[in-house]
Structure to design on (220 residues):
């Protein structure tokens, strides 16, 4: 029996559905764009290197609700501060050993990416692995201990600048979790009422999608 193959039209509709608007998407997109712009502005003012990487970190610290964004930003700042101290000590060992530098990047990336999938570090593990790999790679261009230390301080700023911007921005204009929860519940109750009144295929599809999402995010 031949395997079922989705038609091109159905695949196109499914991909377009990923771009369809949903409650809160425009607000979050504008807030994220503002965070990236402000992060880039701070980087340009203080002339720290790699503004693109610094702005990229904003995608990891900005969440849909205010409290989650603030908590993630604070936790990431604390973790990167601790890891920066560890990396400075590690640099003393691998500064002149290219082989051990590559091994340390590989081991650190593997451990952090494993923790990303197997622990509560899921929102942070990937970006921490990226920053650590970048910081250790800086050693190839900095054969002097002082330059390596300065590079690690820059890596520390790569995280703390967008984290600080995220905290301030979310405290000022970020939506509270309660409002997002009320909106989600109201949307699901509206879908249920429309379905009970004999809604069309679009309503049924939206209702099934809500069922598949479950209540995990709402409980969070």
């Amino acid at each position: 029996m031949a395997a079922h193959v989705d038609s091109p039209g159905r695949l196109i509709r499914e991909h377009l559905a990923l771009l369809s608007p949903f409650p809160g998407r425009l607000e979050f997109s504008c807030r994220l764009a503002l965070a990236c712009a402000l992060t880039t502005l701070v980087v340009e003012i203080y002339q720290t290197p790699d503004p693109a990487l610094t702005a990229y970190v904003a995608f990891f610290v900005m969440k849909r609700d205010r409290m989650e964004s603030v908590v993630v930003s604070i936790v990431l700042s604390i973790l990167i501060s601790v890891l920066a101290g560890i990396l400075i000590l590690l640099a003393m060992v691998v500064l002149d050993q290219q082989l051990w530098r590559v091994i340390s990047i590989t081991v650190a990336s593997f451990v952090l990416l494993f923790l990303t999938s197997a622990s509560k570090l899921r929102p942070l593990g990937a970006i921490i692995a990226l920053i650590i790999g970048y910081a250790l790679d800086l050693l190839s261009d900095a054969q002097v201990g002082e330059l390596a230390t300065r590079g690690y301080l820059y890596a520390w700023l790569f995280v703390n600048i967008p984290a600080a911007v995220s905290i301030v921005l979310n405290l000022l204009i970020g939506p509270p979790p309660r409002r997002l929860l009320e909106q989600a519940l109201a949307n699901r109750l509206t879908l249920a009422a429309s379905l009970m009144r004999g809604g069309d295929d679009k309503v049924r599809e939206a209702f099934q999608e809500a069922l598949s999402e479950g209540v995990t995010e709402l409980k969070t």
In short: DSSP finds ten helices and no strands in the chain.
